[in-house]
Design a protein that fits this description.
Order of helices and strands: HHHEEHEEEE
Largest sheet: 6 strands, mixed
Structural class: alpha+beta
Shape: globular
Helix content: 25-40%
Number of strands: 6
Distance between the termini: 34 Å
């Protein structure tokens, strides 16, 4: 009987996420690595449409606003490094759900960011996020990114 439960768990856990025609998870992982961790802010247009919106914890930003937010973060990290501090940011993303319908797709995922100074973790933030993708000129891009900060729950 124990083996039956293991079999059912494996079968049903593999059915949890929809089968997609494209690796949207890779887009999200690459976006956070290249733009947020490596601060290649000039690559934002590789990931977002020109009319993209970011809804981040009650604030609405258009493409220019997203760009300015990322440039400000990059400047803060560069200033710290000029002052002899080694700052870095690492993302751990766990995908929860996905759906695709022809020209559109969406993902839901948890995003955990660790902020490190001189190799030690100084802050950790967790978000529940959703990304809406559109197919533009045969390239999938994010048109809407919604991020809600997950607050610590009383244990």
């Amino acid at each position: 009987m124990k083996h039956c439960w293991v079999f059912f768990f494996v079968i049903f856990s593999s059915l949890g996420m929809a089968q997609l025609s494209f690796d949207f998870e890779e887009i999200i992982r690459n976006y956070y690595q290249e733009v947020h961790s490596d601060f290649k802010t000039e690559q934002l247009s590789d990931y977002f449409t020109a009319d993209a919106l970011l809804l981040n914890d009650g604030e609405k930003l258009d493409f220019e606003g997203i760009q300015n937010l990322l440039l400000n973060l990059k400047e803060q990290f560069e200033t710290a490094q000029e002052n002899g501090r080694n700052l870095s940011r690492k993302h751990d993303i766990r995908f929860l759900d996905a759906k695709e319908d022809g020209q559109n797709a969406w993902l839901v995922y948890e995003n955990k960011a660790e902020f490190m100074m001189d190799g030690a973790v100084v802050a950790t933030l967790n978000w529940l996020e959703s990304a809406v993708f559109v197919l533009q000129e045969k390239v999938w891009k994010i048109q809407l990114l919604h991020a809600s900060l997950i607050k610590e729950k009383n244990k």
